[in-house]
């Protein structure tokens, strides 16, 4: 019986550590009447940990689209009594030194940068927060991902969820990487989300941008052609497997490589 008790004790400790690792919700949900979205305030942690917790809650870190959004979020969550809070937002660089994008893939159409920001100090400041160490409290600053800050989570209301479009539904089904029958992938869809499941069971969220551009959670971009998806890293998927022999190139392996600069919304 002793080994059983020991293993049970270890399991309890590990479970407790897992529970403790999740971010504490300090406030929320609070509903923004302007968009019907619910918002939460998380205890301090890194940007990535905060974004993971946001997704566990069914949303993302907050997306600021206007002056009204900026004022509402900072007014509700930027104060801790007489003190001010710095707050992680959803905005980050997908690649070091690259452009900032929101977690839903939308472009940066509105910004409230503090004077001199973003400065990408040390070349490693890829995540954005509302800053209190400025004359314009709540103005944005870029910071390193592992900085421990409070974060604001935004969860769209049910009314904000959009059903899959005809194009998105048409993507659901079987695909083959580089036309190879041994590297099958699947695109599965819920009522309002697309997911990619690769041959090795890696899963990623897929989002359509514009008419014929798609991206996944690994920050790869692709162009949708007829029965094909051409990725920015040069790989491609097809609806049907090409003639393929192990150790040889698949038919049509000489697809032109694309780069993110070639893709337009």
Q: In brief, what are we looking at here?
A:
With about 260 residues, the protein is α+β, with helices and mostly antiparallel strands. Helices cover about 20% and strands about 30% of the residues. The chain folds into two domains: about 25-160, Mannose-Binding Protein A, Chain A; about 165-260.
Write the layout of secondary structure elements.
Blueprint: H1 2-21, E1 25-31, E2 38-45, H2 47-56, E3 60-61, H3 67-77, E4 79-80, E5 83-84, E6 87-93, E7 100-101, E8 127-130, E9 140-143, E10 149-155, H4 166-171, E11 173-177, E12 184-189, E13 194-197, E14 203-209, E15 213-216, E16 221-225, E17 228-231, E18 236-238
Protein described:
With 265 residues, the chain is an alpha+beta fold. It has two domains: 23-159, Mannose-Binding Protein A, Chain A (Roll), CATH 3.10.100.10; 166-262. Helices cover 18% and strands 31% of the residues. The protein contains four helices and 18 strands. The chain has helices at residues 2-21, 47-56, 67-77, 166-171, and strands spanning 25-31, 38-45, 60-61, 79-80, 83-84, 87-93, 100-101, 127-130, 140-143, 149-155, 173-177, 184-189, 194-197, 203-209, 213-216, 221-225, 228-231, 236-238. The strands form three sheets. Strands 1, 2, 3, 6, 7, 8, 9 and 10 form an eight-stranded mixed sheet that branches. Strands 11-12-13-14-15-16-17-18 form an eight-stranded antiparallel barrel. β11 (173-177) and β12 form a beta hairpin. The protein is elongated. The protein starts with a helix and ends in a 27-residue tail after the last strand. Residues 1-20 and 250-265 have low confidence and may be disordered.
